[in-house]
Design brief:
about 120 residues; mainly alpha; 6 helices; about 65% helix
């Protein structure tokens, strides 16, 4: 994705925050110089995220954040989009167990718990 497209993405994001948070968001950026500097920081911070992540993070902010997020907080919201997909991924197929070994360990557990074998 080109830098110009990333810049347009950040511009749209700032407009959305302005619509969502109104004066609270706009009052953060008192000068154009600070607004431009902040947009550059957000551009750099969000470069590795897809549009879907940003949209998810925006919805999360809309639902849970009464105040505008900082860049680090918004990045965490973007990362939350991927967490359900990668909560646990096994790197290898589970191996089949020998029923005799499983039975032996089950009997040991029963003995530890004072459960009589069936």
């Amino acid at each position: 994705m080109s830098i110009a497209r990333h810049q347009r993405r950040v511009d749209r994001l700032f407009l959305r925050f302005s619509a969502m948070y109104g004066h609270v968001w706009r009052s953060i950026y008192k000068t154009d110089e600070f607004l431009d500097y902040s947009k550059k920081a957000w551009l750099d911070g969000l470069m590795g995220f897809e549009d879907k992540s940003l949209e998810h993070a925006l919805q999360l902010c809309l639902q849970k954040c009464p105040f505008p997020p900082s860049l680090p907080h918004f990045i965490e919201c973007c990362k939350a989009y991927h967490k359900p997909d990668v909560f646990f991924q096994s790197k290898e197929e589970p191996q089949k167990t020998d029923p005799a070994v499983a039975h032996m360990h089950l009997e040991k557990i029963k003995a530890m718990l004072n459960i009589k074998p069936q």
